Amino acid sequence: MVLSDRTAVKSALRGQRIETPSWAFANSGTRFKVFPQAGVPRTAQEKIADAATVHRFTGAAPSVALHIPWDWVDDFAALGRYAEDLGIRIGAINTNVFQDEDYKLGSVTNPDPGVRRKATDHLLEAIAIMDTTGSRDLKLWFSDGINYPGQDDIRDRQDRLAEALHETYDRLGADQRMLLEYKLFEPAFYATDIPDWGTSYAHCLELGEKATVCIDTGHHAPGTNIEFIVAFLLRAGKLGAFDFNSRFYADDDLMVGAADPFQLFRIMYEIVRGGALDPAYGINFMLDQCHNIEAKIPAIIRSVMNVQEATAKALLVDRDALRAAQRAGNVLEANAVLMDAYNTDVRPLLAEVRAEAGLDPDPIAAYHRSGYQEKIVADRAGGQQAGWGA
Amino acid sequence: MVLSDRTAVKSALRGQRIETPSWAFANSGTRFKVFPQAGVPRTAQEKIADAATVHRFTGAAPSVALHIPWDWVDDFAALGRYAEDLGIRIGAINTNVFQDEDYKLGSVTNPDPGVRRKATDHLLEAIAIMDTTGSRDLKLWFSDGINYPGQDDIRDRQDRLAEALHETYDRLGADQRMLLEYKLFEPAFYATDIPDWGTSYAHCLELGEKATVCIDTGHHAPGTNIEFIVAFLLRAGKLGAFDFNSRFYADDDLMVGAADPFQLFRIMYEIVRGGALDPAYGINFMLDQCHNIEAKIPAIIRSVMNVQEATAKALLVDRDALRAAQRAGNVLEANAVLMDAYNTDVRPLLAEVRAEAGLDPDPIAAYHRSGYQEKIVADRAGGQQAGWGA
Amino acid sequence: MVLSDRTAVKSALRGQRIETPSWAFANSGTRFKVFPQAGVPRTAQEKIADAATVHRFTGAAPSVALHIPWDWVDDFAALGRYAEDLGIRIGAINTNVFQDEDYKLGSVTNPDPGVRRKATDHLLEAIAIMDTTGSRDLKLWFSDGINYPGQDDIRDRQDRLAEALHETYDRLGADQRMLLEYKLFEPAFYATDIPDWGTSYAHCLELGEKATVCIDTGHHAPGTNIEFIVAFLLRAGKLGAFDFNSRFYADDDLMVGAADPFQLFRIMYEIVRGGALDPAYGINFMLDQCHNIEAKIPAIIRSVMNVQEATAKALLVDRDALRAAQRAGNVLEANAVLMDAYNTDVRPLLAEVRAEAGLDPDPIAAYHRSGYQEKIVADRAGGQQAGWGA
Amino acid sequence: MVLSDRTAVKSALRGQRIETPSWAFANSGTRFKVFPQAGVPRTAQEKIADAATVHRFTGAAPSVALHIPWDWVDDFAALGRYAEDLGIRIGAINTNVFQDEDYKLGSVTNPDPGVRRKATDHLLEAIAIMDTTGSRDLKLWFSDGINYPGQDDIRDRQDRLAEALHETYDRLGADQRMLLEYKLFEPAFYATDIPDWGTSYAHCLELGEKATVCIDTGHHAPGTNIEFIVAFLLRAGKLGAFDFNSRFYADDDLMVGAADPFQLFRIMYEIVRGGALDPAYGINFMLDQCHNIEAKIPAIIRSVMNVQEATAKALLVDRDALRAAQRAGNVLEANAVLMDAYNTDVRPLLAEVRAEAGLDPDPIAAYHRSGYQEKIVADRAGGQQAGWGA
């Protein structure tokens, strides 16, 4: 790598932004058991403080996504200022239309028009919060679907979905966007109303420019080639965000890069190749994970670092050599060029980037030395720990 | 079908026994939400009453499996008598070593010997309950596994597993058995300690005759041919039980026969072909389901009926014609013989079997007419509804 | 079912049309071995004769799809007349851009512009054949894709694909259509250029009204809900055709309905519910199967019957009762209404439909009695049997 | 890494042995098309010459597996001497009971006893070849299975399989072994007779000490944790061999390490942890791949290097630190220790190992410089290229 390239790579890495999710700092688990952890936040403020801590050690996570109503506060403007005081800002607003009794058979696709009204109203309310927090992104994930063949009409549910999306879209401000997530299954076990990127894409296309697809890396059928979807949506101008995590089986919500680091690299390569790494491009690179058994803050720091390492490798791909091999139909050489970057140990490079930015080159060790963990364990005694049910 | 055959089929159907699980009458859900239902039991006794109701309308579900500690009572002998008074008996005892804080990193395979001791003690305690209830079957399902590569040593965990199984096996009485369940994933998301039938089979083989494999129909990798496993284990004399349910994606725990009735038929055909339908053969045909959004008691009645219908079709296979076509290498004819039975509408035959046994030919309708649902909704007001966390 | 309903169901069944594929009458196999069968056609004419035979016994398969160049003849007009003389017509024209040495690294997405030109020219040539045969449908399946990460640029390949599709689309006559098929994998093993319905849909949308999606029921990732795709595409007016077959694992190409008859029923239910069964709606219901080890003509007759049986069950769904249960949120009742139709034995009804149409009620038996098989075995001695390589 | 460790790692790498498969040098493809390559061998001798070339540049592939009858020669003793003259030896003998017309419905599990006899005789004949070549390993892969439910009796086929295996096992000499491979599907599309490791293991256990399981890394259901199987079989003393390759979807037979290098590392870690890397342990680490579109010899060199790189990383795991973190239940630290090794760039270390062994540190470049490829392209004009059908 010539010096100028190295400078460009480091500059790109320095500019990379990853958004953390407030709920990843809270307790989570499986349907079998939630194992609580000491020091877990009890309030939106404490989650934001943890997110700010991740940013303090990584320098790459300057915003935190909220989840309504898990992060409900009476004064979102004050919450925004609280975040800013800690050096970060409030990012995407995530809606929740799956935890009320009314949503047993669906929210915006429920056969009952009253439930649909309630659900859509919640989406509109989330936009009002965005107006206050200055958030750009409204993230929509619907658990809507059915468990049994015949339970409801698949096509009618699409009509209802489209109607709710249109009403919500129309309420968006000029600088606001809708991120529409898809998921193969869970909690619906037969047919999910937005099961794949195609469904999300089709609705976004119909809605307009402000609607884009959000790819959660754990939401696909086995064997799905995620980087293909990334490349396709970039080409179509319809990729708006990632929910990063990793999975071996279903929506395991493990740390991103933990299950298949090579896949993460391939995804980031498509991002780099598509010119979409720069925050100005507009993609919101979020984490969406559950740290059920591992310490949460260090796991999130590790996740940020995993994305950075995959990105660094993607940036190191010799694209001229790659293109030449591809054009020549040299299968082995083209693959080798890609693998050469992947096999590089980029940790020294990232340590350098961190040091140049005034950060500790080893964020995990620095966190452990900082005493933050001991402090929150001591301070956050009593009260009700936050979790998905909170 | 000649008359004598029809008589034999009806006799086999009359003799079929399906065990219901106490926990299926209680609230259940996904990690996202548990939707409670009106009339859900609050105690082990109320669960048993519901199980007895299922038996009253189907005549085919004379036993109920318990789950310890969900169904913990101080006096299991009294609980057994309570069941008998209602016309059923207590079946398999299911252990639970996954809901205590100590089990965060595993139970019998935990790296901490103290936790392993505690877990094994629970298994031994369950056998003591069996001594009291007269249960034959100890059912073991371990959520043990790891979420991240490196988290623990895969092979060491097998050693620990073997040790706990041996100690437990040695405690079994002369007429008691161990049913060892396997599951691909969930709640462990990288490596589960008993992920497949091969692992369960290998441990059972090492343990001895009283240890047999339990097949949960929802616990396999996509594409797994379950009836092959049934045939293989029957041939090896190592199939001890089923946990029936159905799935489209992962361990969805839907009503058995709801997702792939043809698969259920193929499974029951292997049972019939292996001569293993008769209760005297010793297989415990249990349900293990979660009725998250549908009414629980009717869903369980429907599940019993689904197994009966698949069994009736399996019994109707013209095995002489099938064997002749198979031996002749006539692929289409052999398949046609099987499909001919599958395509038969066996509901009239089962209605006849029920009527002859003094049952209502339509158990679902009879249940709805009975007023039982209205009664439990009224009676079970207040108190704490049972669920997985109870 | 009241009489008028029964009449309507029978009328719908009588009008149903299924297209057979010429290549299913020829030899096929796996990469390990092609097992030839006696009596297999050697020419396009002999394939058409077999297709006409399937129609003669089923009355439901009045057209046959051709595959170019497998079915290349010098005079397609004469071939069309030959088919008409036998009582059927030529249906969709299938293109083949995957068996020439030039296509090793792709056809329309090949990095080499010369190869792309050659491939597109073949597509245009197929339209010229359609002009002659009067075929409405141009079916495009591309094996294009890459085997190794980095081998070629995923996004560039989409550009090339779009370009070839546009040129081809522009050549279509007023009454001609393009059917764009997708497939997850095989023969490409890392990234396929049209891997899913979303990709096909997006290209069709861009192309215009004459481009629609073709669903091959064996081309999905494990767990994909195909009937959802059917419902979605019908709603969007973009479902053009089916390639029916069935699979347990990958693109197994077994007889439709053989692996999961309940899935086939659910698919046909969405067709019926969407008003798309009638040939006037425009969907081309084709078979696309490989009869590697079973007798080919009877297997195709059986496949036609399997689709008919699934359709009959779908037509029998009590849609008023279903809608009422769905609207009431009665999960079990709605499922029961659907299952009631599925569990019905529709073979007597179909036998009646056949008899009323002057057909033998048992097409398989009639075929075996007809002597056709013996005749082709005797007549088709010598020469080169047709197959995929032909 | 302290110096003594580094010495040990290099010593282990120097001792590593990977067996190449003769058929990987020949033409291969999918059911859609075989794309021939220039310079492909026409005879067993030419395949051996290519294998010797791979060894010449890697120093790690001193044996070549043969496939009977693809590599049939009249004088196997002479063939063995030919290999030795080129610096390698003949390794495992692979049997082929899937390409004769007789095997359409199976070989050793065929319903026809005559076909079973023929198939078993072929297995015995392969042992006779082993007597001549001095091969230790008889590798058995059976394509046996059925495509349609009912086609044959699943359990009867197990009986027939057991019988053929017993007869074959009894014929093995004192220093000979049986490697029993399993595969989920293909070419059988409904039920395969040895579909998973459990089935292979159970048969091997019954046969005796000389029978062990062969793991083909591409033969599993989606989501299967292969390193678990490795760890389990090592613990049971029943892992005999690998067929290395990689896959994204089914049995894609891509270059090992190409699809999921992290998985390959995890597999090699279990090998290292189990003390099974040393050739003296007895595991045969074979490649079994198809280079359908890429140049074959360089692809095989690359595959050998991929295994070496994964092994080097596995050897670099700080096992004391890992064990300490595991015992302490420190999930993140244990994972980090493993990932630290994985993230290391081991290419310089392997270059050093090669240089010290008198090899070119870059085997691929050295091969390309050697002129071997140009020579075989020129020399091997005319004749019939070897392939699967040869």
Largest interface: A-C, 60 and 60 residues
Q: Fraction of residues of chain A in helices?
A: 40-55%
Distance between the ends of chain A: 50 Å
Strand order, main sheet of chain A: write it out. 1-2-3-4-6-8-9-10
| Helix-strand sequence of chain A | HEHEHEHEEHEEHEHEHEHHHHHH
Q: Which ranges of chain A are low-confidence, i.e. pLDDT below 50, for 5 or more consecutive residues?
A: none
Shape of chain A: globular
> What CATH architecture label of chain A applies?
Alpha-Beta Barrel
Mean pLDDT of chain A: 97
Main pleated sheet of chain A: 8 strands, parallel
Estimate the strand proportion of chain A.
5-15%
Strand pairing plus helix content of chain A: what structural class? alpha/beta
**Domain unit count of chain A:** 1
Rg of chain A from C-alpha positions? 21 Å
The overall strand count of chain A is 10
CATH class of chain A: Alpha Beta
What multimeric state do the chains show? homotetramer
Number of helices of chain A: 14
CATH level 3 topology of chain A: TIM Barrel
Provide the CATH superfamily of chain A.
Divalent-metal-dependent TIM barrel enzymes
